[in-house]
Amino acid sequence: MKINVQALNECLNIDGPIWIEDNPDNCIPLPSNYVFNSEWQRELARKNAIERNKNYKGANNPRAKTWKIVYDDGREIIIKALQRWAVDNGYSTSGIKSIAYGKWKRYKNLVSVEELAQAPTQKALDAL
């Protein structure tokens, strides 16, 4: 079977053949074991993402916010990366966020969780 590509060539303003033969024998076949979006490709992409971001988890994340946590006995701590801290210390992330955003007044032995103002980064200062 032949396909007329003259109109396409004119649209793209290129000099090319007027006819292209649709012949499966001229195609380069993919390997028989090749599968598009295979489990192997997804696993490779996941491993690459983990490797690329391994130094930016939790408190090392440059976008992580700083929080002040107040316990019912009066102790105060300053942390970075609220979700990571919650998981590491046995609190649920939804409970911590509920007290932080004012939905709850208390959660377990915590009386308040407040977001602190972020110190400007050197990059932000250089932009000024």
Give an overview in words.
- This protein is an alpha+beta fold.
- It has a domain of 58 residues: Orthogonal Bundle (Arc Repressor Mutant, subunit A), CATH 1.10.10.
- Helices cover 34% and strands 18% of the residues.
- The protein has five helices and five strands.
- The longest helix is centred in the middle third of the chain and has 15 residues.
Condensed summary:
The chain has 128 residues and is of the alpha+beta class. It contains 5 helices and 5 strands, in the order βαβαββααβα.
State the main characteristics.
two-stranded antiparallel sheet; 34% helix; single chain; 128 residues; 5 strands; alpha+beta
